[in-house]
Design goal:
It contains 1 helix and 9 strands. The protein has 194 residues and is mainly beta. The chain has one domain: AOC barrel-like (Beta Barrel). Belongs to the plant dirigent protein family.
Length: 194
């Protein structure tokens, strides 16, 4: 049988139909999921990456990077500032100085969520803008007891090169100005990803 465009089209159509029926046979009407091997999704070997950067939280001056968006009626009388909520778009830099090379932004929300200690609920994305992780993000969701020397928050996901990410972020206050309340925080982030 000679190869003709019609034969090629027919062959491709048969392959497509077989693929569709094979896919549909993976689930029944009672199931809502499929399990795929990592290779089918294009994943290679899982790796562990260490990221190191500085987070600049500026609440003072003419161009703050974190601003209050809400507070409870009792926030100002609370010893822990309970009920305070801020939105942030903080620079992430290679070094502790504000003029150091910027590698991304920390964008999200933090709120004072403890009545017994100065503790923040952190809901944020590290949005990377430099190097091989440019355009990728890591998502953080966790408790940050800011007066502790070292704090650990979970990495709960990511995008781009950090799809299916999991891990933790370790925070250490590098500098805190008690007058302006501005802070620089050193982060070491350990993340498993494909």
């Amino acid at each position: 049988m000679a190869k003709t465009p019609q034969n090629t089209t027919l062959t491709l159509l048969i392959i497509l139909l077989i693929s569709i029926f094979s896919f549909l046979s993976l689930t029944t009407a009672d199931e809502y999921y499929n399990t795929f091997p990592n290779k089918e999704l294009g994943f290679k070997r899982e790796k562990l990456t260490h990221l190191h950067f500085y987070f600049h939280d500026v609440v003072s001056g003419r161009n703050p990077t974190a601003v209050k968006v809400a507070e409870a009626a009792t926030t100002n009388t609370s010893s822990t500032n309970f009920g305070y909520v801020a939105v942030l778009d903080d620079p992430l830099t290679v070094g502790p100085n504000a003029t150091s090379k910027q590698v991304g932004r920390a964008q999200g929300i933090y709120g004072s969520a403890s009545q017994s200690e100065v503790g923040l609920l952190m809901v944020l994305n590290y949005v990377f803008t430099e190097g091989k992780y440019n355009g990728s993000t890591l998502s953080i969701l966790g408790h940050n007891a800011i007066l502790s020397a070292v704090r650990e928050m979970p990495v709960v996901g990511g995008s781009g090169r950090f799809r299916f990410a999991r891990g933790y972020a370790e925070a250490r206050t590098y500098m805190f100005n008690a007058t302006t309340l501005d802070a620089v925080v050193e982060y070491n982030v350990y993340v498993s990803h494909y």
